[in-house]
Prior knowledge:
The chain is an alpha+beta fold. It has four domains: 6-97, Uridine Diphospho-n-acetylenolpyruvylglucosamine Reductase, domain 2; 101-219, 2-Layer Sandwich (Uridine Diphospho-n-acetylenolpyruvylglucosamine Reductase, domain 3); 223-339, Alpha-Beta Plaits, CATH 3.30.70; 344-448, Alpha-Beta Plaits. The chain has helices at residues 6-16, 25-32, 52-65, 119-128, 145-150, 158-161, 164-167, 197-200, 234-248, 260-269, 298-311, 324-335, 337-342, 359-373, 402-407, 409-422, 438-444, 447-460, and strands spanning 21-22, 45-47, 69-72, 91-94, 101-105, 110-114, 131-132, 168-174, 180-183, 209-216, 218-219, 223-231, 252-259, 283-291, 317-320, 347-348, 351-353, 378-384, 389-395. Helix 1 runs antiparallel to helix 3 (52-65), helix 9 packs across helix 11 and helix 14 (359-373) packs antiparallel against helix 16 (409-422).
Amino acid sequence: MGRLTETLTKSLENVVGEAGLIRDSERMQSYLSDWRNAYRGEAALVVRPASTAEVAEVVRLCAQAGIALVPQGGNTGLCGGSIPDASGDQVVLSLTRMTQIRQVDPGNETITVEAGVILQRLQEAAAEAGRLFPLSLGAEGSCTVGGNLATNAGGTAVLRYGNMRDLTLGVEVVLPDGRIWNGLRGLRKDNTGYDLKQLFIGSEGTLGIITAAVLKLYPAVRSRTTAWVALPSTQAAVDLIGRMRGLCGDRLTGFELMSRQSVEFVLRHVAGCNDPFAEVHPWYVLIELSDTLLDAPLNEMLENGLGEAFEQGEALDAVVAGNETQVAALWKMREGISEAQNHEGPSLKHDISVPVSSIPAFIETADQQLQAAFPGVRIVAYGHVGDGNLHYNISKPVGSEDAPFKAQAEAIMHVIYDVTRAFAGSISAEHGLGQAKREAARRYKDPLDLELMRTLKQALDPAGLMNPGKLL
């Protein structure tokens, strides 16, 4: 790969302007490490184009010079997918200046936005049009649409609305040679060959740079009810979600599972959080029903479902939020887990998925094997039961040192991923592979899967300049 020259730097500056170029080492720092400081690299330059045309010209110039590009959005990822390597030769291409909401089409129930739009701003634009954009996750105040697409983000509403693949009708992509593929079609039916947009969604910038997207909108939510429920087991959670689905259908929009260890960390470290129950329970779920009708009988549905659950021993206790303040307090308990765990020292994060019916057996098996091999580790298990996605994170034993625990990270990972494979699961449900799971993918993905992925990579990016070292 090439090295950045002063001539190329000047050419890039002519494209993006002085405001779009960062050369100063101190100003570049926030682009060179992830928000957890788990991954760090170096870069020759940070380029911040403000339009698709500028992105295309930047890519074209770098391709001609053999300069590798690392696309970056809000830099909120957990797998190091948007961080350059240590060579200092790569160019970070930040899309954070591409913030236009190009079109809201209520008649077609779509919104067209650029890649640098913050997810929360997208949600607000949908609300201003009397609609809902349902993707919701903890980093929504800083993550960008481009990053959400590049990693096929999921979040807490996948149960009802699906992940970014399901929410996307079309994308605009700058290809590795600088050509622009205009796939911004707001069509729900287009049977004219390969669904090319799906190549780029979830590809983590390794096949091209997504610069804009046509996304689905939904009717605004006008009523909802939220409950915090104590459970005796994970099997009770699987039984309860089946019961609630049968009673409520698509009105069931949230069903989040949390272990007691997860909740204890939140109560210890997140200000303003209080245990809804006087007694300690092994597992909890956060249930949310929503409807487009203002006076939908959601409380009645919830009470019916929970009543049956109590009779069957699936639920031990429950509290229903009485107002929006209480709703926010319950969600704060769920959304505070990742932050709270960081206060307990190094956190080994594993974003896995298994069939919903296998969740209880997976947790029991993985817990037993981890405690046998690494006595005293604290297991923080939580996630989206409805789509089989668990965040199965590990904290060090109480009183132990950081360094020995970190040294066990790979061995711990293999235990978890071996159990995941045994239950026909995936080692990455919604965070992507990035650089964190690139090597693990070689071990746990089908060799033919990897061969087909490499074939696509070679076809679209033969020079290997698009986010090299990530995913493959």
